[in-house]
Design goal:
By secondary structure, the protein is of the alpha+beta class. Helix content is 27%, strand content 32%. The chain is built from nine helices and 17 strands. The strands form three sheets. A seven-stranded antiparallel β-sheet has the order 1-17-16-9-8-7-10. It has a six-stranded mixed β-sheet with strand order 3-2-4-14-13-12. The chain has a four-stranded mixed β-sheet with strand order 5-6-11-15, with no helix packed on it. The chain is globular and about 60 Å long.
Length: 398
């Protein structure tokens, strides 16, 4: 496991950022990466479409993709083919996927010494897993294996203890419904802590108004900064996009703010596919920027199985058709895919964590942007466009 770095702050950063070194992937890894981005955007759209525009939520598409990739190694037959199709892997093999995961985990952990990222996974079984499956998970996904578990209150306590450790305490409890009736669990976790390359000054944070979807107004702490270094800015047909980098610039938060006459759904549509995301990255200019935006914290719990089934994963959730015999001798189907995510954004930067659990059955003149209405966000790695976290802020007062 990657040890979680000490908490950083804008007022005192103990180390200088490492120089930006471009991440270059091999041919096969680049193909897997492109497929993961397509999956991430598809899942993001599915969740955004079914979400209430009045509700906050946070999602980690990357954690969900890693969860499905791990399950791929335990699948066979129709289930194997469907997971490959939904992940967009085409002619790629599970070996290609595993090699990509290992490479990405190693590369993006070390891309920026002022940004802390840790990946972890664990497998829990009432009996035992197929040995070749556990060996693959240990080698490529840094998995911890828990076999011959009681799947009672003691297992729930151990799950909570494990999640708290690997998410730096951000997720300390993840209650698994009907745990005593389950046969196995597959979990993936992602922890992120990034310090803005230029921070907001706390002394400039003042209460301000934020307009909700229904037209009402709430008063929330609004951060404000006139940045000294140029920031990313792009004007689209229905919204504005602002990019705030962390550390040496490998990671950034993309803020998508709909215009007054447009909706939060329009903001989500602006990044609904790979072409749109690439276009934003390609045409986003660097400009002098004055930004006012709310501090926000979101803790959300999402169930992903309906979205995944809608994307084409049918047999995985059907006990008659699911084939996971490469994972457990008894096989079995997946009953639920749950994701719990927490994100805190303030003057110094961003801290976020998620647990995904599968259970059995710009110009020189400058711009001034005030984010005072619901908006969408995404935390991405610049070279690969990997989407670590995404979501929407409908009401920062909650």
């Amino acid at each position: 496991m990657l040890a979680v770095a000490a908490v950083l702050s804008c007022s005192k950063v103990d180390n200088e950022p490492t120089p930006y070194q471009k991440i270059t992937l091999g041919t096969k890894a680049a193909e897997v990466n492109a497929s993961f981005i397509d999956f991430s955007l598809g899942l993001n759209e599915a969740i955004a479409t079914k979400s209430d525009e009045k509700q906050n939520y946070c999602l980690s598409p990357l954690s969900a993709a890693l969860n499905m990739a791990l399950l791929l190694n335990g699948a066979d037959g129709t289930t194997f083919a469907e997971i490959k199709k939904v992940l967009g892997l085409d002619s790629l093999t599970e070996s290609d996927v595993n090699a990509y995961v290992r490479t990405m985990m190693d590369l993006i952990r070390t891309a920026d010494n002022q940004t802390t990222i840790s990946f972890s996974s664990s497998l829990w079984s009432r009996k035992t897993f197929v040995p070749s499956f556990t060996e693959t998970c240990r080698t490529f996904y840094d998995s911890e294996i828990f076999e011959n578990e009681s799947f009672g209150s003691s297992t729930q306590a151990e799950l909570n203890k494990w999640a708290k450790r690997v998410t730096n305490g951000m997720i300390s409890e993840f209650t698994i419904p009907d745990l005593e009736f389950l046969f196995f669990l597959v979990t993936n976790n992602l922890y992120f802590k990034g310090i803005w390359s230029e921070c907001f000054e706390e002394s400039k944070t003042k209460n301000g108004q934020f307009k909700l979807t229904d037209g009402t107004v709430v008063t929330v702490p609004m951060m404000s900064a006139k940045f000294k270094k140029p920031k990313g800015y792009l004007r689209l047909e229905t919204c504005k996009c602002v990019e705030l980098p962390y550390g040496n610039g490998h990671y950034s938060m993309l803020l998508i703010v709909p215009d007054e006459e447009h909706t939060l759904a329009d903001a989500h549509r602006a990044v609904r596919d790979t072409e749109a995301l690439s276009r934003i990255e390609t045409y986003m200019g660097r400009t002098n920027l004055t930004l006012t935006m709310p501090r926000f914290s979101i803790a959300s719990s999402l169930e992903l199985q309906d979205a995944l089934a809608g994307m084409g994963l049918k047999s995985l959730f059907n006990s008659r058709d699911c084939d996971l015999t490469k994972m457990t001798p008894e096989g079995g189907a997946i009953g639920r895919v749950m994701q719990k995510a927490v994100i805190n954004v303030d003057e110094s930067g961003t801290e976020a964590a998620t647990s995904t659990v599968s259970t059995s059955e710009i110009g020189a003149s400058g711009y001034e942007v005030t984010i005072d209405r619901p908006f969408a966000f995404a935390i991405i790695e610049k070279d690969t466009n990997a989407i670590l976290f995404s979501g929407q802020v409908a009401n920062p007062s909650k």
